[in-house]
Amino acid sequence: MTLKNKRIVLGVCGGIAAYKSILLLRLLKKEGAHVRVIMTKNAGYFVGPTTFEALSEKPVCMDLFEKTDDAAISHIKWADEADAVVVAPATANMIAKMANGLADDALSTFLLAVTTPVLVCPAMNTNMLLHPATQRNLETLRSDGFEVLETDFGKMACGTTGPGRLPDAEYILDRLKACLFSKDYEGKTVLVSAGPTREFIDPVRFISNPSSGKMGYAIARAAEQRGACVILVTGPTALEAPYHVEALPVDSARDMAKAVFENMDRADVIIKTAAVGDYRAKTQADQKIKKQNEELVLELVQNQDILKELGARKTRQFLVGFAAETRDLAANAGEKLKKKNLDIIVGNLVGSPDSGFQADTNKVTLFFKDGSSEALPLLGKDEVAHILLDRILEKNGN
Ligand code: PMT
To answer: What is the pLDDT of residue 67?
Structure first.
């Protein structure tokens, strides 16, 4: 889900990567989070507190003994209130303090008092990172329950190339969201199909549909954030694959069928969001079809129904289909649920700009194998994804 109204504390330490925490702050605000910034004095040499104050719209805490904003007690108050904490960049010094329970400035004191999830994003010179003391401290943080990001590899400010760079703000945001979810899909493999298929009629033309992949990618992202190992079989889309999923790009329905059947045995849950072409051209022209007559008749043949075949072959897999319908949602979806031997079918009302193809939101009804159903209000596709994942666990006896 989004970070709307979540209380996030952003800890900033003194490193050249401190400028990236401004981008992170902007992303957090864009998500609707309430962000409080605690920065070390050294961070102030790289980016001034005024910038953080202006962007967070809240006073910044730098000093335990400041007279403003009740700074002397704010670290305790914020520690009690925070939903999650992100320290970016986390310097070797702050990591060492955290690993040893030191509390000698506002940020380290806060970090000792906080009990909510803390995402630590190290960034430093390569040699400092690889120093046995830093590695030991990072290991301590991990075993103490902190979520510690791997650094990026690349050219450093000091001119050397190696590990130690702060990952992009988008990635940090994604991992922060992951910190907020319980890992209720840990140990499970979820196979998701997403996007459209393309059925070429000649080398330059194809039959397809308007699926953007947003719904399927949202499910893949949500499952990964909840600890699943995710296989994403995806038709052509303009989207970046979610982090840490195994993305298998395909074109046609036959490619999709092959990728799905090859991987189905690895999956505990299969969710078929893809809008698969029901038909393909009987023959695909080797050369571009020339414009000749007024009319051109294309002969089409049916593609295999991948979901139906999955329903016939499934063993332990929990199987979820989607049904894109313009009318008679319950009747049409219900029929597909039975015919394809599904555990859940997501009836998706399409044809309005805020639901179905390409929209960021979706209006769906979940139909369950036991005959019950649940109509959801218009929600973001991320929210639909999480509710669907919740119901899968409930119905699957978890
Ligand atoms: O990608 P977005 O822009 O976010 O849009 C999302 C969506 C509208 C595509 C999605 O929410 C959705 O409704 N997907 C199902 C679309 C569809 O093809 O529905 P269907 O009723 O034709 O197919 C029913 C089910 O059978 C689907 O799970 C489909 O993946 C599967 N199927 C269909 C035909 C086929 N040959 N093989 C299949 O596996």
So the answer is: 59
Phi, psi of 389 (to 5 degrees): -65, -35
Identical fold between 7-180 and 189-395: yes
The pLDDT of residue 159:
84
Euclidean distance between CA atoms 45 and 41, whole angstroms: 7
| Residue of 192, 209, 211 to mutate, ligand 1, most atoms within 8 A of C-beta | 211
pLDDT at position 69: 55
Q: Considering only CA atoms, which of 214, 219, 180 is closest in space to residue 392?
A: 219
Q: What is the CATH number of domain 7-180?
A: 3.40.50.1950
Is 121 an annotated catalytic residue?
no
pTM as predicted = 0.93
Helix axes 306-313, 253-263, angle to 10 degrees: 20
CA distance 234 to 364: 21
Fold of 189-395: Rossmann fold (3.40.50)
Tell me if 270 CB under 6 Å of ligand 1: no
H-run or E-run covering 175? helix 169-180
Q: Quick check: 286 and 203 in contact, CB under 8 A?
A: yes
Q: Which of 269, 272, 274 is nearest to 345 (CA)?
A: 272
